[in-house]
């Protein structure tokens, strides 16, 4: 933008200077030529007054003196063929003057001026003044150089002023872009300068309004989540009491574990709502993927046994640190295994594998022998999209967890049938 402003101002100023200085330069050359011709005319007319005296010796001396002191060649041609002053040939213009006509013409090397004169006897004569090109253009080169320097100076001044203005515009634009990037990183207290130049100030004010509105919406979301979590805790406490009152200890333990899982999910939702919009660069979130996945497999294995599902588990020995909190990793594993139980019939086998990732982190793979996804159903990775009547949040939770850990999620067909979900989890320090 700054370069474009400078180019525009430079081009405009150059056109204006050319339109002004070129005619002025031509005028100066014309004025210099006219001045030289006028000077020669005055000197020639001074000689013409001496012709009328009739004193040949005094006339010869006067013409010689004028020619010696003048910047022009002055010659007097008398009717008897005598030539006084500077040596010169009788040109056609001189012959025209001998017939009584005064004139001037451009000749090679300069300009020739002739005047017809009469001596006391009435005999005609011709005064010739020759103005060389050097006299016709005297001072023109210097004047042109001064005009060129003036034009360059004006151009530099205009570029300096334009650069100052462009810097102000570019600085405001860069500051505006920096504020937008800070807002994108979650720094919701970032604000642009509404006093910026022109329309940039209007955009800055609109951006500040948008940032304030986003902060307000996030605050309302946090309050809503906290209120919802508070309301859910009461029925959870009742469920816990009901579970403890069961006569079968195994049922009581199983239902109590489920209530604990829901309690953790609610607590995690509250923590995430509180962390949202926090300043970047805070404490890095790290968890051990091996321990977390092992705990969640142990939880789901009870339901797998009840639904007669064959389970294959391959978890690399830990620790396997990843750039994801334990609660978020648990939610990711629960979402993937929950999809298996929700979208495959009872008795469908599944496998869970956790391996170290090259360069750090871990790779979590959940595969099942179910019907898999329909052809072209890649939209299932988008939030709220599902082809099986569910809310469509399971794979989206897993995808966002992978991205939060600096990794990715991809869907692949299983070796024999079903679906395989591969979640790449980056090492600590790689999270965006």
The percentage of residues in β strands lies in 15-25%
Give me the number of helical elements: 10
Distance from first to last alpha carbon: 31 Å
Cα-based radius of gyration, to the nearest Å: 50 Å
Gross morphology: rod-shaped
> How many domains would you count in the coordinates?
3
Question: What average pLDDT do the residues reach?
Answer: 80
CATH superfamily of the largest domain: Histidine kinase-like ATPase, C-terminal domain
Class of the largest domain, according to the CATH hierarchy? Alpha Beta
> Given the helix and strand composition, which structural class is it?
alpha+beta
Order of helices and strands: HHEEHEEEHHHHEHEEHEEHEE
Instruction: Let me know the largest β-sheet.
Output: 5 strands, antiparallel
Number of strands: 12
**CATH architecture tag of the largest domain:** 2-Layer Sandwich
* Order of strands in the sheet with most strands: 2-1-5-4-3
Percent of residues in helices = 55-70%
CATH fold descriptor of the largest domain: Heat Shock Protein 90
Uncertain runs with pLDDT below 50, 5 residues or more? 277-283, 383-392
């Amino acid at each position: 933008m700054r370069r474009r402003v400078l180019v525009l101002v430079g081009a405009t100023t150059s056109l204006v200077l050319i339109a002004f200085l070129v005619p002025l330069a031509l005028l100066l050359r014309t004025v210099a030529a006219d001045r030289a011709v006028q000077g020669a005319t005055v000197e020639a007319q001074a000689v013409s007054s001496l012709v009328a005296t009739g004193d040949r010796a005094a006339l010869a001396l006067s013409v010689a003196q004028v020619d010696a002191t003048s910047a022009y060649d002055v010659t007097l041609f008398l009717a008897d063929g005598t030539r006084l002053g500077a040596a010169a040939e009788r040109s056609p213009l001189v012959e025209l003057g001998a017939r009584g006509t005064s004139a001037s013409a451009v000749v090679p090397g300069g300009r020739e001026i002739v005047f017809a004169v009469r001596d006391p006897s009435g005999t005609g004569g011709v005064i010739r003044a020759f103005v060389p090109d050097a006299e016709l253009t005297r001072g023109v080169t210097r004047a042109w150089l001064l005009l060129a320097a003036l034009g360059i100076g004006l151009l530099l001044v205009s570029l300096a002023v334009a650069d100052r203005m462009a810097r102000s515009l570019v600085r405001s634009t860069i500051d505006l872009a920096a504020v937008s990037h800070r807002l994108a990183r979650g720094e919701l207290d970032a604000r642009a300068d509404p006093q910026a130049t022109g329309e940039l100030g209007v955009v800055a004010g609109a951006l500040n309004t948008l940032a304030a509105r986003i902060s307000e919406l996030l605050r309302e979301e946090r309050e809503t989540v906290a209120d919802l979590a508070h309301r859910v805790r009461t029925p959870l406490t009742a469920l816990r009491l009901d579970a403890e009152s069961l006569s079968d200890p195994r049922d009581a333990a199983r239902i109590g574990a489920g209530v604990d899982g829901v309690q953790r999910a609610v607590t995690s939702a509250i923590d995430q709502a509180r962390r949202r919009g926090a300043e970047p660069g805070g404490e890095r979130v790290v968890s051990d993927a091996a321990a977390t996945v092992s705990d969640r497999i142990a939880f789901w294995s009870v339901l797998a046994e009840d639904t007669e599902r064959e389970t294959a588990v391959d978890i690399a020995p830990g620790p396997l640190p990843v750039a994801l909190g334990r609660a978020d990793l648990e939610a990711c594993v629960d979402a993937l295994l929950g999809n298996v139980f929700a979208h495959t019939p009872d008795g469908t086998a599944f496998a869970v594998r956790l391996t170290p990732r090259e360069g750090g982190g871990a790779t979590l793979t959940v595969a099942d022998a179910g019907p898999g996804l329909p052809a072209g159903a890649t939209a299932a990775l988008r939030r709220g999209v599902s082809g099986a009547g569910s809310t469509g949040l399971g794979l989206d939770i897993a995808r966002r967890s992978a991205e939060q850990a600096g990794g990715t999620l991809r869907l692949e067909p299983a070796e024999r049938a079903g679906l395989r979900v591969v979640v790449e989890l980056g090492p600590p320090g790689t999270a965006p």
